Amino acid sequence: MLFFRKLTPAPRWLILLGTLGFTQVLAADSAAPAPAKALKLDEQERKWMAEHPRVIVASLEYPRYLFKDEHGRWIGLNKDVLDRIGAMTGLQFVHVEAFSTDQMLASLESSEADMSTTLAINDERKAFLDFSHAYGGAGWVFVGRAEAPKVQSLEDLAKRVLVLPARHALEASIRHEYPTIELRTVKTYAEARALVESGEAYATIDNEIGAQLFPSGQLQLGHILEGRWDPEHLAVRKGQPHLLSILNKALEAFPPAELRAIRRKWLNGVVTTAEPTVWQRVTQWSCRGVFVVSVFAVLFLLCNRRLASVVRQRLETEQRLGDQLAFQQALMDATPDPMFVRDLQGRLILCNRSFEESLSTRFDRIQGRQLIELEILPKETAELLHTEFMAQLGSRSTRFCRRQLMFNNGLRDIYQWTVPFYGADGQLRGLLGGWTDLGQRIRQA
């Protein structure tokens, strides 16, 4: 209080208004979610649940919506929604992994699965699937090469190659409405992006949320497809009206505040929320603006004595990180077999000294480049390995094999290994690999 009395009237008002703004912002952001409405299920629906307590969900990994963490557990926005519905209904959702859209649709057509969470609506799918109420959505966006002009519409792709995963939600309509587009299909979005990067295709189309999650590299986002929207539904195999009805009732009873919280948890920074009214924007920004100004005023008055400590701690942290990186590099260099680390586009991030010596090159010459951009291996070998790396990143599988590969100095008998690696957030970061020259081991023995 003594400090407050010594302040001039202007800082006093800033502090008071800042406190008011802070409490309003805090109240808006931390409002408790409304309780879920009680589900009113009829007798037939309750009987169906008793006979079918487990629901098989055909699940294809799609970043932020549904994917596996480093422990192989399913997580994501759709997983949280299903968990909440399970808590409301007592249903148990069992995820069965699919590795492509085509495989996921086939499992639903053959009745191997009951439902899916990542399928968009089109006429082909409506023939054997029913769709629940929508609980969100996003647009479709073009993805093209970075050095090419941004794709603005489907008309820009006339007489050009557009690559899509097989049985994509837009495939049939594009073939019908834009016959001049040369449409190619692959298994996964990862393969589609790889073809665009290599120049074999001009563009692909992805959900705008998924497209923003991948490093740009040689790709760039184009415009959003006008008039095309990708609502978020739960797709249910036909012949299960009770399951569809239960899911719809659960979505209707889902507390809006809780659904917004789940979307913020997984999509924060990727999508925008519903457009607020003018008065809401003015009130929100006024409160936050006053709060920010007040914080800066208080910080200025108190002279922030922690600045020197923060700088010192940062320097110490940087020193520790530098030591750790130096240790990691020394450890890799001490390994007699060649080792490398590549990113999601197959570009070299790190390698050891044995890798440089084996390929007669230096790291500073090949850093940040793909095998197909270099001449350290025969062209056929480089293309083969790059294709395998991109396919492995798409499937997130490991590879250990004995094989013969042609190097610049001749054919070698090697034992090759490559494994995907993940960040602390569970996101795929790239590929770690290496090989052992079996012929050299035999000579040394």
From TrEMBL:
Pfam families linked: PAS, SBP_bac_3
GO biological process: regulation of DNA-templated transcription
GO MF terms, alphabetically ordered: kinase activity
This protein's name: Two-component system, NarL family, sensor histidine kinase EvgS
Organism expressing this protein natively: Pseudomonas moorei
Superkingdom of the source species: Bacteria
Family: Belongs to the bacterial solute-binding protein 3 family.
Keywords: Kinase, Signal, Transferase
